[in-house]
Amino acid sequence: MSDKIKRSQVDDINRRNNAADSYKNRSFGNKKSITDEYTGKRIFYNANKHINEKQSNVDHIVPLDEQIRRYGSDLTPEQIRTMANADANLANTNASLNKSKGALNNHEYIAKKYTEAGAAQINDVSETLFGKKIFKTNKKAVDCPDVVTSVNMLKEEVKAEAHIRTQATKYKIENTVNEIKNSKVISSKLDAVAPSVKKAASAGREAAFVTATVSGLTNLVGVVKGEQDIKQAVKNVGKDTVRSFASAAGISVVQDGVVAVAKKAGAKDFAKLAEKNLPIMQLTMAVEIGGIVANYLDGNISGEECSAQIVCGTAGVLAANMAFALGGPVAAVVTSLVVGEITRAVTKYQMERRLDKKRQAEFKHIINTALQSLAQQKQRIDEYNKAKDAYMTAAFNGGFELVMQGVYAVDDKAITQGLNDILAVFNQKCAFQSLEEFNSFFDDKDAVLTL
Amino acid sequence: MKGADDMIGLVLGAVLGSGLYGAEKSMQIDSRTRKRYAKAFAMEQEAHRLVEVKKQAADNAMKKLSNRKRSILITSMQNFVAVYGKLMKIDFRDDKMLAVLNQQSFSPKEIQIINAVAQTAVRPMTDKEIAVSILKGFGVFGLGNAFINDSERELQMAGAQLRSSRVVYSQAENLAAVLDGVIASCNKVSDLLPRLNRLFMQAISYSDELIAAKGRDKAAYTENDRKAFCSCINLAVTLKKIIDAPVLTDEGKVTQETTEALAIGSQCMQDIKNL
Fold first, then answer.
1. Which range scores top for mean pLDDT: A50-64, A126-140, A368-382, A430-444?
2. Within the 411-450 window of chain A, which residues sit less than 8 Å (CB to CB) from chain B?
3. CA-based nearest distance B38→chain A, Å
4. Given Cys at both, which of A9, A214, B92, B215 links A77, Cβ 3.0 to 4.6 Å?
5. Contact state of B238 with A447 under an 8 Å Cβ cutoff
6. In terms of Cα–Cα distance, which of B18, B66, B70, B43 is closest to B173?
7. Region of poorest pLDDT, from A338-352, A408-422, B66-80, B224-238
């Protein structure tokens, strides 16, 4: 933990539990019980009437200590506090699980529980056979999270990680940009931008930060040069960083989850294989996960869909390939644990796809209707323009010719008629239609000519 | 375990091969996507340019017409008032002149709507193809398909963008046609005015000579003299009515067509958003 930031500075009990619009109160609404986001079982609002397994607690999915450790040196306590207590990082679960999890990440907790269970079981056998324990632990066989709980916890963790790393990157870039502005650093002194991000990279803590360094610098240069605004730069860096996260932390989370499942199923060979860092598989998965997360950032899919696609998809690929490698009933058992999830996703997809075809057809129909209407309008305008042009030409030329004939023949009627033809275009007529009309006006001493 | 290791190698080889095939295929699709986006972008830019050019031409035509009107008002019409003021009372009103001269074609708001339509963004159809490609992963070749599906979705989006660009361009063509009509009308009136003005100046000059010769006694004027006066006054009234008339004599028609073109584009954009 950072020396500077205390846990109490970044926790927000009101936002989580106490305030009227806290995550807990919003989740419960007027209900007395809701579904545990990890176990899928019912949990209750009121602490006095129920035991720990049924008492609701709000868990920080990515623990506060972990966030302080990661971001304590780069972000302010307020920024970490906002990130840590965002809805994406909170989950309603039971008090028992929440306390047991402590300051561990979800995947660490799952792995720990399975390890403890394995050790306890071996100790039981060892004590029965040899009268002594093999592992130095006093723990008895413990309840491991079941498959549903494990999958839910991993899903939530991936979703929370995607949110936090994106948010952290945004804050980091905003802080750096503000630093530049405050210190009046101009483009010729861009080196001053580097240290903040370089620090993260040189520490080699996370692949995401390496990407942030490259992407961040490139984008910041753009900001300082006035080629792009801060908002766009933050968006770009956020995307690049989360892609990178997908190839490192994301895979690690999924891989750990699969290992835990495999261990429970007794598929030791599978678990061993899954624990290995297979670069080819990681590379292909990295591309795939990167695409999914980018879609989440673009707002094309929800956080739920994002996590479901990552966990089900990647775990599915891993399990499927392992199943091919191992063969036999063990692989079938392990594979079946994730197939259920994938099947659900695919069923949903098939429905979506049918909807998509309908949407595409509707889209084409809308475009074609608009084009047709515009084509009809164009034809109407062209015809109108043509007719109007012909009318004006005839009225002006014919009218003027008649006026000229009247001038040469000293024929006032022809002149009047010619002028009337011209004025018809403007829905008007001459002042005097005949000499009689003019004479009565001309001879009237009080008459006024209005122009 | 050796058999299993061999199998792993085969599986991973197949996965990698599939991935590379998919990557190459997706790059080909991406190239088509870029071309479609480029074409859509070019079409939207061309639509903007077309409207801008026509709007400029319409403004120029109206300016030319306004100048001709102004020149008649400050020369010939003043002469007429001076000459005929000797014989009769004249109420000369030029208050409509400014309104005519300040007349414009399209309002900035209308142009803004056109720009808004040009920026129609089409949301991606779906992101769920990936899920199916994962299922195909059980058949090993799914990873390659994941690349391809992703690219195909992008290609589909680019196609949608291109189609909506055609609407934007078509809308711009209609607006341009409306403006063509405005330009043609302006030019016709601009050509007519100097011809009538020449006649008018001759008539004023002749009237001036008559009044100078016969004085202010109206009884002294013959029928032919009166015919000359009548024609000269009719010319003055004709010119003044043309000057006072709005450029778009049936402006309702132009407004109607312009509004309709904008409405079609806006409705299209709204329908797409509601999809």
1. A430-444
2. 412, 415-416, 419, 422-423, 425-428, 430-432, 435, 438-439, 442-443, 446-450
3. 19
4. A9
5. no
6. B43
7. A338-352
Reported as half-sphere exposure (CB side, CA atoms, 13 A), residue B162 has a value of 14
Nearest to B165 by CA among B119, B123, B124: B119
Strands A448-450 and B89-91: parallel
Mind telling me how many Å the CA of A443 is from chain B's nearest CA? 7
Q: B19 CB near a chain A CB, below 8 Å?
A: yes
Banded model confidence at residue A215, pLDDT cuts 50, 70, 90: very low
Give contacts of B 96-115 with A, CB under 8 A: none
- When CB atoms are compared, the residue of A324, A352, A415 closest to B234 is A415
**What is the DSSP track for A138-166?**
-PPP-PPP-HHHHHHHHHHHHHHHHHHHH
* CB contacts < 8 A (A, B): 248
Residue-by-residue pLDDT tens, chain B, 275 positions: 334 344 333 333 333 333 344 445 555 666 777 777 778 777 877 887 887 888 788 878 888 888 898 889 888 998 999 999 888 888 877 655 555 555 544 455 545 544 444 443 333 333 333 333 333 332 223 333 444 455 666 677 677 777 877 887 888 888 888 888 888 988 999 999 999 999 999 999 999 999 999 988 888 999 999 999 999 999 999 999 898 887 655 555 665 666 677 677 667 766 766 66
Q: Which of B126, B236, B264 sits opposite A370 (nearest CB)?
A: B264
* Cβ contact A359–B125 (<8 Å): yes
Phi, psi for residue B30 in degrees, rounded to 5: -60, -35
Q: Looking at chain A, how many residues does it have?
A: 451
Q: How far apart are CA A449 and CA A430, in angstroms?
A: 13
| HSE-up of residue A202 (Cα within 13 Å, Cβ side) | 6
Distance CA B238, CA B41 (A): 50
Regarding pTM above 0.90, the answer is no
B17 and A CB contact within 8 Å: no
